## 1
Amino acid sequence: MSAPICVLTGATGGIGQAIARLLAKQGWRLLLVGRDHAQLSQLQGQCENDAEIFVGDLNLLETRTQLADFAKQLGGAALLVNNAGVNVMQGFNEISEQQIDQLLAINLIVPIKLCQLFLPQITAHSGTIVNVGSSFGSIGYPYQTLYCASKFGLRGMTEALARELSHSKVRVLYLAPRATDTAINSPQVRAMNKALGNTMDPPEKVAQALSDLINSTNRRRFIGFEETLFARINGMFPSLVDNAIAKQLPKIKSFFVN
Ligand SMILES: NC(=O)c1ccc[n+]([C@@H]2O[C@H](COP(=O)([O-])OP(=O)(O)OC[C@H]3O[C@@H](n4cnc5c(N)ncnc54)[C@H](OP(=O)(O)O)[C@@H]3O)[C@@H](O)[C@H]2O)c1
């Protein structure tokens, strides 16, 4: 019998590659999704269980439809990992209209549309959807306005869908990494994290957390004790976090304002 299919978006990224290698080792047959054919082929060669690749820009309806059709031909997706994402860390005034559209599209609109598109396949397999969010999906952070908007939205959508489907056999999960050592973080962001003493995880830690989440009965997983605590305090007593971040603001600002 062939292994169940896992559709993984953002497979060529730092976290995506680590997830691909781990899930393939655990017996999943991967359908690796990205825009760079050469990188996808290279990763395909590193994955066990005959991984497949799919090249395309997920912002396009045609690409998403073809992806779902291809997954169906392979036997259907039992696991969808919405991992593709981008970030811009800059002052709110400097963000262009185009950046607003692009970031919200790939971080929020595309995962919502893929959840909807893949739901029949996932349902047929009594499967699982994992949406990859961020600690910034629970904590509003300066110079991360767009990213926070997208990840807060993704967290809300995931929670709502999980509750809507709670009487079905489909699981909808949310994984929130903290800062992780990948190309999504610009040199400025890395310098800021260093100055603020923020921990940066290796991508393999995120992959392991995703695997643990899938294999648990939990619906959500936040990585990092301090970040999880901060998110909880922000939920209950946001003014405490307002004050803590206000104290850090001059330092944060120094990395993003000339
Ligand atoms: N690294 C962190 O500090 C961190 C922390 C919290 C959460 N996260 C989340 O973790 C996820 C993975 O991020 P990462 O750190 O691995 O970033 P990354 O290394 O920059 O990888 C991002 C991935 O998203 C893909 N992607 C971007 N736009 C796309 C589009 N229009 N169509 C198809 N694919 C697209 C990229 O593909 P291309 O190669 O084709 O561009 C790449 O595979 C993201 O959702 C991110 O928000 C990351």
## 2
Amino acid sequence: MVAAPRAVRPRRGAREGADSRAARDAVFEGGAMPGQGYGSAQDHGHVFTGSPLDRAGNERRDGAWIEGQHAKPARRFLALRDLEALVEGDPAPTVAWLAPAELPDGAPEGEAVLLGLDGGEPRFAIDLTAVDEAALAGPLADGRRFAEVRGVAPDLPTDDTAILAQARSLVDWHARHPFCAACGGATTSRNGGLMRVCGDCDAEHFPRVDPVVIVLIIDGDRCLLVSGRGRPGSNYTCIAGFMEPGETVEEAVRREVREEAGVEVAAVRYHSSQPWPFPASLMLGCHAEAASASIAIDPEEIKDARWFDRADVARALDFAAGEIEGESGLDFGVPAPFTISHQLIRAWTSEAEGA
Ligand SMILES: [Zn+2]
């Protein structure tokens, strides 16, 4: 019997309270195998998921409609500068939406990307990177500040992080694609920023999304975690890697796990996904069963790979979530709750508790 998925929308990824913990546990009641009987990513409350905006996919193909959105008095702007986002409020920050009159001189409003509609009113992302610093006094009034998205995301409402993921990926893509990859001609934004068209050869260019598989390998009562070369200290996480052209999710999981840890994989089950806008990844979270146990790491890719007991991993998760005072008493750590890696591991340990 598989429990019906329930909507779980914790307001803060990293500050999970008792209510959201209870709701999260409810998702896993019924002892479902990891990866079965789960709802959408939104149900998991992952950071960067669950945007409340209507993306207006059909309307935005109409150029006159887009022009109309740019003229609406209630339009608001999410400002980015060097890919940092304007936020306000401390210690509980939110995205700072600027009114048209609050935009600085030189703000490229015509280039603003239409993120979507909030209650029918347009919400744009605008890149202020090229704006003179002296003109930023208005946007930076009242304690507003530009914040690095990865750093501030755990403290923002989840809705805001989803909007930021869309905004950061799109603003970055536009900044990198002023010219046509086919002929080198200048491109211009269309459809409110969901495509660019070459003025010379009419080629259409679309924002990229880069799929990444991320997987927790399970062998009975233990799981396989790796320590990446770029990771400080003794942090261990799920195996992850970019998918390659012509590959299924299952094939990518098997290849990555074999390449990084030398472990063979049996069944692969999809769990949930998470946009990761650095710059445009989509994390495809999976659980998979190990078909072999001995580890042979690729030292070019990772520092270490180990099997960890479930009880130790559960304690490491609680420590990463700030639920344990002082020391964890473990010789390893796991990623913070706002990562899908943490949530994949949590789903496995919670499934065991509920069984
Ligand atoms: Zn071209």
